[in-house]
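Hi both,

Apologies for the delay on this - the queue was longer than expected. I finally got the pyridoxal-5'-phosphate-bound model through. Below you'll find the protein sequence and the ligand SMILES exactly as submitted, and right after that the structure tokens for the full complex including the ligand.
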Amino acid sequence: MKFVRKTENTKRYVDNIFSVVNAAKKDPEAINATAGCLYGEDGKLFTYDCVYKSEAEITPAQRAAYSASPAGNQEYIDLIRDFVTGGRIKNHHMAMATPGGTGAISCAVSTCLEEGDSIIYPKIAWGNYRVICDEHNLKSINYDVYDLDDLFAAIDSVKDKVFLIINSPCQNPLGHAYTFKQWNLIMEKLNSLDREAVLLCDIAYIDYASGDPKKYFELFDEINDNVLVLLAASCSKAFSYYGQRLGALIAVNNDEEFLDHYMNLCSRTARATWSNLNNAGMLNIASVLRDHREEYETELKAAMEMLKQRTDLFIRQAKDCGLELYQSADGFFVTIRVKDNEERDRIHERLVDHHIYTIKVNEGIRVGLCSTPLYIVDGLAEKIKELS
Ligand SMILES: Cc1ncc(COP(=O)(O)O)c(C=O)c1O
């Protein structure tokens, strides 16, 4: 292809999600279960009052200003690091600000992998992992999140550096989460390898998980020297701050000197790509974490409860009418099991014809319960079953 570098991936980029999202927006009768954002029971994008109350105090000059460095403002970095880790990591760890969870993942990939290397990620997964693989000319190796042996076989199939993405809890699109016992086995496997292993934990939705979702971070205190853990956190989801593009990359390793060097490399990558971050966003999230933490926790609890009511209802009604779902724990989505992708396409089309907009994923159809108020969820499983 003319003008572009020889190694540029010239495969045509098509964003399947945005086309169906736009179709749903144009349909006045739409049941819109396409979004990856949380909506309230009023059908509007859910926002946290504490986030926007605090944002009103930011001055025009603060909004206009560059951030302190490509790695972000130090106060934001310190507060987001402690918020994300929840005090569960005693091992050495360092953080930087990123434009969303995507920025963290992209920085991790570009600092750790060469063209032709492999990324291991779930076979039913957030579609952007494939886009990131394509962008960097990487091979993808996929595993079944419900089968640890399959994950371990994927790890064994990579003969040099292992780069593994785990999106747990609240996996997009399945809602799957590994138990602490399973995390123990995963870490044992990575620690037993005779080669370097980078574990990228995509924890974009972790704040919406029930139980003690951060307990497995304690296992990072006992990693082998060959293991680098990277946490990719997203303010888009945690604070309903999608368009403000904020997140964090947190690196955990036994060697503090290595971490210092690694974060310095990440800062250069940041400078060379996004260069600078949303200054007002960082000031604001820092202020929420510093001065409005209790309000935030209260609002988050209410948001989780709203989401849980929707997922509980949909799962119960799906069971009653025989609509087969992948097993899920928590999260923004549930996924209908359709093993044959051609059959999935037919069902998806029929749903669109009946104003039900969902997202096609490998071997399934994702229903974004995050964007459907409870009164719409009620009866939705039966409607989908009838059209399947
Ligand atoms: C699984 C997963 N990881 C990461 C992200 C990153 O989101 P953002 O870049 O907006 O933080 C998303 C967003 O939809 C996601 O679904």
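Main takeaway for now: The mean pLDDT is 96.

I'll put the files on the shared drive as well.

H.
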